Amino acid sequence: MVTLLNVEDARRLARRRLPRGLFEYLDRGTEDEVSIAGNRAGLDAIRLAPFALEDVSQRAQDTVLFGTPQPCPLVIAPTAVAGLMSYDGEVAMARAAKAHDIPFCVSTQSMTSIETIARDSGARLWFQLYVWKNRARTFALLDRAAGAGADTLVLTVDTAVSPKREYNQRNGFGIPLKPSVRAGIDVLCHPRWFADVFLRTLRTTGMPTYAHYPDEFRTALGRAVVGDEISLATDVSWKDVAALRAHWKGRLILKGILRASDATRAIAHGVDGIVVSNHGARNLDCAPHPAHVLPAIVAAAGGRLTVLADSGVRRGSDIAKYLALGADGVLVGRAPLYGLAAAGTPGASRVIELLRAELDTTMALLGVTRLDQLPRTLQMEA
Ligand SMILES: Cc1cc2nc3c(=O)[nH]c(=O)nc-3n(C[C@H](O)[C@H](O)[C@H](O)COP(=O)(O)O)c2cc1C
Is 292 a catalytic residue? Predict the structure, then answer.
């Protein structure tokens, strides 16, 4: 694993291992991919100014998120179909999270059920929710998540409809998986993934399915239609937030907030945290970069809820930048997925280790020893 020296190394390996359709689903954005370039540019434009001659011999990056201490400010973001990136991918990712003692957020659209992930990984689990049209079934799913030990619910609020990904229409990859000549050739050109992930999954658990869908709707990914009742609701509103708040006993987080006014509304609804996020530039292609809106949102929140951020993190210094802008913690999506695709649990774990080491180096070079000192390093525009 020492051969992976940075996230880009893991990305390159992932590109070689995965069928092109799957890699592009993992890696790319939407429409003209303006936002994906914007995420990089937004983080690159931030400057942190070092304090000279500070004793940095004792550095720590431990923090407390939602009352729970953790050794670094990271959370593994929810990612659909992580289970296809390596064999038993969701459990493998949760094990990497466990090794670093950080939470793993299970996606509604994961291939492995939260019960199995909990049993096989022992990781601290959050659960991400896409609201289905049938709210009763949605609440039943939440009860499963709570029963499996999830202490935090993450309601994703930025995905009212499926975004436009033309490259996936061209390369034949989609959810549900649809057999096509192009996709078949793609898979056969990646025999290692075909044997190690796809065939092995078929042998052990059968055709991959969305594990959280109710049994009567549980479509094998190969089947074209997902039942209407469990298709994503397009009428999700603050009323749903109120209903979730009343139903869910644990922490409630809204993911995909990009406006200060929505943060204030979240506080009024008794929400515990928000993720300032543009979904890793995978949804609205003209969305702002989180770094641009984060300071105003942090100011509006005024310490009344926990503010997390994500999108575009590829270096430890990116984590330092989000924290310097006022975030309490940072979610990482693609970075550990690249590691997972490259080498399973050790690959994902190695990526987290690299990010932590880079954050440590950044702190030392900035002359700070604790995360709460990072906002002082922010170089304001003249
Ligand atoms: C392959 C993939 C699948 C994703 N699936 C979900 C999902 O099911 N639910 C969700 O809320 N976010 C999903 N996301 C978004 C991530 O949770 C996160 O916001 C994003 O990846 C952060 O940007 P980054 O990848 O640049 O770190 C997904 C991201 C990726 C890369």
Answer: no
